[in-house]
Each structure stands twice: as C-alpha cells, then as structure tokens.
From TrEMBL:
Residues 66-277 form the ABC transmembrane type-1 domain. It comes from Enterococcus innesii. This is Sugar ABC transporter permease protein. Gene3D superfamilies: MetI-like (1.10.3720.10). CDD domains: TM_PBP2 (cd06261).
Amino acid sequence: MLTNRSKSFWLLLAPAFIALLVVLFIPLFTGGYYSLTNWNGNTISDFIGLENYLRAFKDQAFINSLLFTAKFSVYSVILINVIALLLATLVTQKLGRWTTLFRTVFFMPNLIGGIILGFIWQFIFNKAFESIADLTGINFFNGWLNTPETGFWGLVILFVWQMSGYMMLIYISFLNNIPEEILEAADMDGANPLQVFFRIKLPMLMPAFTVTLFLTLSNAFKIYDQNLALTQGGPFNSTQMAAMNIYNEAFSMRKMGFAQSKAMIFLVIIVIISIIQISITRRKEINA
C-alpha cells in the first residue's frame, strides 16, 4: 500500500510535479520577472519595476479590450449554458436510435479548430448573408462583420456554436446520474415536466454548473484564434479581445516586457473571477 511517506508515492508523483514545474511555475515566475523589465524579446537593458503595469492601466486600447472581453464572456457564458442544458434535456429523452445521432451532430462543432471555425463563419457572414440580402432585399444581412455591434454578435454566435455541444455532454452525464426513483416519485405525486425540471433536476445539476461555468468562463476569456480568423479585431480594434491585444503588443510591437505585464494583469483578473464563480456555485451546491 502506497503512503505519502513511501518512496513509491513520490516516484509516481514526480512526473506530474516536473511537468507542472516546467510548463506552469517556471514560465509564470519568469514572465513575472520579464514584466518588470523593458525586454524586447532579445535583450533586457533596464529593470523598470512597476512602470509597465502603470502604463498598462493607462493604455486605453488594453482597457477597451478587457471590457470587450468581459462583455463577450457574459453573453457567451449565459447563452452556451442555456443552449447546452436545453440540448442535454432533449437528447436524454427517449428518442431511440436518434439519440446517438443528435449527440454526435451537436458535439461536432467542438472538434473543429478555432482558425478553421473562424474562416467558416467568416464565409457565412460575408458571402451567405450577403446572398440572402440580395435575394430578400433585407439590409440586416449586409456587412455583418463591418460594424462593432454585428462583429460582436458574430463572435458570440461562433463561440456559442462551438462550445454548446461540449457543455451538453457534461450536462448529459449529470442528468443521467439523477436517480430514477426520485423522478418516478415526483411523477406519482403528480408533478408535471416543468416542475420536475425546476424543482428536482435543476437543483441536482448544481455540480454540473460549477464545471460548465468554469470551463466556459476560462475559454471565453482566453479566446484568440476565433477572434483572429473572424474579425482580426476590426473594425478599428472595436472587436479586439484581450488575448489579441497582448499578442499584438508582444509580436507586432516587439514590446515583450510591456505585453507580459498585460498578461499578468489579465491572469490575475481571470483567477479572481474564477475563484468568485467557483465559491458561489459551490455554495449553491450545498444549499441545493
């Protein structure tokens, strides 16, 4: 039997510890140091302390990208989880042989890479929508990626379409774990389907909400490739998300130290939001 004092225990944990050290902790501390310098990717000439951080908080483009990312995340997280839960409820009904087909079809968008997905939806918004506008004369479908408002909703639609199927699988696993005895008892007591869903299923799905909210929040905040492929941050950086702003600062402007300070600020924001979300949903689990 392995114990925390045995050599075998630490030997088995060693690969995981080494991987965390190399992939997570060393880059984190190295990046923290670089954020305090004027590193340009090749050399460090000065240690400038918190100057990069002060500049970052005064950088209006960075602040706008953070606000845009926050707005995008709020709408995306709500829509993804609502749609995913509806899809999970649908495919857990008695649909016979169609159940597997529906699950596969709903999950497939998640298998497509972000860049390819962005180009697919760029074609839909630019070509397909313009064809609809030409046929119907409805101006609503024209220039969908040419304005900040429609560009924002284009990104939301893309991300919701990509992530809903993945979140659906998580909800399915939790829905399938609800004891049949409870549902049968509710049915015998005369509860209708809506009452069963809101009074029994929804409270018992709180652990699923903890997982799905965390995953959708973290993915929404760090989205980059879809943003690049669909709008490239345009028009006039109005749809530029935080990850793209940081990337452009580092690799286009060659201000690696400044970009690293933005990345550290962004990391702290994500960690704080994630901790708040997990603590709230965990509390709801206990109350449920």
